């Protein structure tokens, strides 16, 4: 009987030793799996962040770009007063010849007059005179070309000594990327014949 008990005792110890040894390996395997899972989660989070960053880096609309460009704050105020911000946020492709703050300051009394509520339709005409349907990059402009504005009148393009002029305004910062066209910053406010 003692031998039978001894065999049972040895079998129990062997089973226990096997279980402990297996658990030790299982613990190591579990740790490794957890580590791999953590790496996969970190890689997934990094991929999501890269996608989010690339979406954030995409060009914004004409209106959003203007709002985020300090040198176009007067244009933004004019677009708001003329209730044209939504047009500049739209999906239609537009080319905007955007006067800088200095350009507006050069004709400040005219700007002040146009910003009055009773002159909203005149302001809209002046602003639409700076906009052409479609996307026209600087490289697409040709000397003598005429561009029909949303206001209805035409702007004449001239290129001389590497300078691009549109309607008498110099394009100082061409091809600002936006998701609904292109913006060319100019040094002059363009005023149509009829407004």
- Continuous helix count: 7
CATH class of the largest domain: Mainly Beta
Indicate the structural class: alpha+beta
Order of helices and strands: HHHHEHHHEEEEEE
Largest sheet, if any? Answer: 7 strands, mixed
List the helices and strands and how they pair.
Elements: H1 2-57, H2 62-67, H3 73-81, H4 85-89, E1 94-99, H5 101-105, H6 108-114, H7 120-128, E2 131-133, E3 146-148, E4 154-160, E5 163-166, E6 169-178, E7 181-186
Parallel strand pairs: 1-7
Antiparallel strand pairs: 1-2, 3-4, 4-5, 5-6, 6-7
Give the structure's gist in a few sentences.
The chain is elongated and about 85 Å long.
Give structural attributes.
single chain; 195 residues; alpha+beta; FAS1 domain; 7-stranded mixed beta sheet
What does this structure look like?
The longest helix is centred in the first third of the chain and has 56 residues, at 2-57. With 195 residues, the chain is α+β, with helices and mostly antiparallel strands. It folds into two domains: 1-58; 62-186, FAS1 domain, CATH 2.30.180.10. It starts with a helix and ends in a 9-residue tail after the last strand. The relative contact order is 0.13. It has seven helices and seven strands. The protein has a seven-stranded mixed β-sheet.
